[in-house]
Amino acid sequence: MRIIITGASGRMGQMLVRAVNEAEGVTLAGATERQGSPLVGQNIGVIVVDDMKKCAEADVVIDFTAPEACLNHARFVAEYNMAIVIGTTGFDTKQQAELDGILANTPTVVAANYSVGVNLALNLIEQAAKVLNADYDAEIYEAHHKHKVDAPSGTALAMGKALAQGRGVNLDDVAVYNREGITGARESGSVGFSVVRGGNIVGDHKAMFIADEERIEINHFASDRMVFAKGAVRAALWLTQQDAGRYDMQDVLGLK
Question: Which residues fall within 8 angstroms of residue 229, CB to CB, at 6 or more apart?
Fold first, then answer.
């Protein structure tokens, strides 16, 4: 299977290139970077280019870039009948709708987090939320490195959605993203989010169910970004055997 990696000089881009080179049954067919990047023209197993049309033919694109760049890459994928694995987060409502439209007839995996452990945690959170109702106050905590530009993280939001789904509610109706000043007592059934940014934290996530008598926590701590890259390559391998449609890592891992 032939893979193109976008944003090859980024933190995740570098890990993805390494993961593809180390995986069996896959080949690095291309690597891209933005125009003007010093990596363009360099050989990292393939020559890095600033236009996907300069890449060799491929089966799957793996994209961990930024929303606007991802939209451009999605248009290319749809035009050339490829598949795409998306780890990019931070899309606004308009961008998300545009992405869905572009990839309507394309095999696509979209996930906020490609760690196998995180996706097991999402499954556990949904199960826990079915049992631990609004009598248990729900809170989600996440911490990432100081360079991360969106908050809460896509994984934290995925945890919130899994929790809300378990309780049969819409996350938008119960989420609390900001607390400052005199906030009043906590509203029953709400889901609070807290965010830390600092240093080189790869990714810490925690879902808490808190009652007066006990507290249940489901935690995941990532120590190396390679765990996300390996998961994305696993998703790419799985995706080549699927029909057009939108999938997530729960599908890839057979957790649905």
Answer: 12, 15, 16, 18, 19, 114
What would the two tokens of residue 105 be? 């007839």
- pLDDT tens, residue by residue, 199-208: 999 999 999 9
Read off the pLDDT band of 147 (50, 70, 90): very high
Encode pLDDT of 2-26 as tens digits.
999 999 999 899 999 999 999 999 9
Residue 48 has pLDDT above 90, yes or no: yes
Alpha-carbon gap, residue 16 to 228, rounded angstroms: 8
Taking the CB of residue 48, how many other CB atoms lie within 10 A of it? Answer: 24
Whole-prediction pTM value?
A: 0.82
Fold of 2-110+225-252: Rossmann fold (3.40.50)
- Angle at CA of residue 192, ends 118 and 120, nearest 5°: 15
Q: Is 153 left (phi over 0), alpha (psi -120 to 50) or beta?
A: beta
CATH architecture of the domain 116-222 equals 2-Layer Sandwich (3.30)
Tokens of 1: 């299977």
Topology alike, domains 2-110+225-252 and 116-222: no
Active site residues: 144, 148
Segment 76-87, tens digit of pLDDT: 999 999 999 999
Q: Give residue for tokens 């899309």.
A: 91
pLDDT at 56: 85
Please count the CA atoms within 13 angstroms of the CA of 82 that sit on its side-chain side: 27
Helix (H/G/I), strand (E/B), else coil: 59? coil
Among all chains, which residue has been given the structure tokens 């925690």?
206
